[in-house]
Amino acid sequence: MRRVVYNGERLGLRDVTEADASALHAVYGDAAATQHMPFAPRSLSEVAGLVAQALEAAAAEPRRLYVLAVIDTARRDVIGVARLHIEADHPHSAEIGFGLHPDQWGRGVGTDLVRLLLSFGFKQLGLHRVWGARSPSNLPAQLAMLTAGMVEEGRIRHHVHTPNGWRDSIVHSALQDEWTER
Ligand SMILES: CC(C)(COP(=O)(O)OP(=O)(O)OC[C@H]1O[C@@H](n2cnc3c(N)ncnc32)[C@H](O)[C@@H]1OP(=O)(O)O)[C@@H](O)C(=O)NCCC(=O)NCCS
């Protein structure tokens, strides 16, 4: 397996390791960071289980799931987590998901992260389509994806089941032939 290391200007992406569980728990275990996700905040042991699944998926051939630690390249610490999942029936297309530690929010890091994920998907993986689904009320995710060049495609009704019931999603996407790296 070739491990992912993909660096931008102020952020980097790399495969998660077991040592990242507590840094990922700062996102997946946080009430504010999971507010728009379809699950309640995870425990540390649940996050360790997710990391174990990610390591297994990283070894699969062909590889379809990338669970990546988001690195602040200046400080060299893990500030968030990103996922890119290639669809089995549509291998030109992948869904992304992302979350940052709350102490990073509101400084343009999320927008940079979406840009880096698009660059990784198109340039490194040779994908044609990258898409993401957000909660209709997730304004920071909406603005980060729009600013990074992911257009709004429409609404999937009752896309996910959350602890509060069914929730619609708004889909954003970028296509390789209309994308320009910024
Ligand atoms: C979504 C997320 C990654 C955005 O990260 P971020 O670093 O705050 O994003 P940015 O600083 O690049 O901000 C993106 C836009 O949202 C705006 N914004 C950020 N926080 C905001 C807030 N609380 N209220 C309103 N607007 C906000 C910014 O001003 C910016 O708008 P602009 O492009 O017009 O300047 C972050 O909020 C997060 O990790 N949320 C929890 C996980 C999540 O919801 N993931 C998305 C799943 S689809």
UniProtKB/TrEMBL annotation:
CDD domains: NAT_SF. Residues 11-177 form the N-acetyltransferase domain. InterPro entries: Acyl_CoA_acyltransferase, GNAT_dom, Ribosomal_N-acetyltransferase. Gene3D superfamilies: 3.40.630.30. Pfam families: Acetyltransf_3 (PF13302). PANTHER family: RIBOSOMAL-PROTEIN-SERINE ACETYLTRANSFERASE (PTHR43441:SF11). This is RimJ/RimL family protein N-acetyltransferase. It comes from Nonomuraea angiospora.
